[in-house]
Amino acid sequence: MAEQGKKQPEATPPPDAQQLPDPSAATTNPPDDAEAALQQAQAAVDDIKAQTTPGEGEALRLPDFEPQPTDAHSPAALELLRDVNLHVKVELGRTRMYIEDVLRLSENSIIELDKLAGDPVDIYVNDRPVARGEVLVVNDNFCVRVSEIIRPIEDD
Q1: Is residue 8 part of a domain?
Q2: 14, 58, 93, 129: which could join 115 in a potential S-S bond, CB 3.0 to 4.6 Å?
């Protein structure tokens, strides 16, 4: 019975144990706790907004993604295109023929075209019509003098 007079040592929680509040020691009402938590959350949101948005009177600067207007005929813009190869075609005229007639073609055969001599010829660049002109002979070479520029057809 000597053991009854001895005090039992109190159990101590391990150092990594989480301390929970004592429910009997609570002096505030649960609705007050919820309101305090809501106010803390609102204060945190306000702090984040203050850090990520510009201050009063300060404009938020965004990069300009619109293309800058440039003069298409400026020497710098044309200089970039000087080495680009284009396919240029001059069409004297057209005709339709049966396979039988094509097979009969030989040297000195004459093919009648839909245009008359002296009519303007069509000039194509990369298979797009860009101009009309007249056929000339200069130093025994055929040439075309551009007489009209065709307005481009707008692609939709």
Answers
A1: no
A2: 93
Residue 76 lies in a domain: no
Domain membership of residue 115 (yes or no) is yes
Give the helix ranges, DSSP H, for 53-137: 75-79, 99-103
90 occurs within a structural domain? yes
- 118 in Cβ contact with 134 (< 8 Å): yes
**H or E element in which residue 146 lies:** strand 141-149
- Whether 129 has a pLDDT exceeding 80, the answer reads yes
pTM of structure: 0.45
Q: How many domains is the chain partitioned into structurally? A: 1
CATH, residue 126 = 2.30.330.10
d(CA 130, CA 122): 8
**Separation of alpha carbons 93 and 136, rounded Å:** 16
Convert the pLDDT of each residue in 76-97 to its tens digit. 777 777 888 999 999 988 999 9
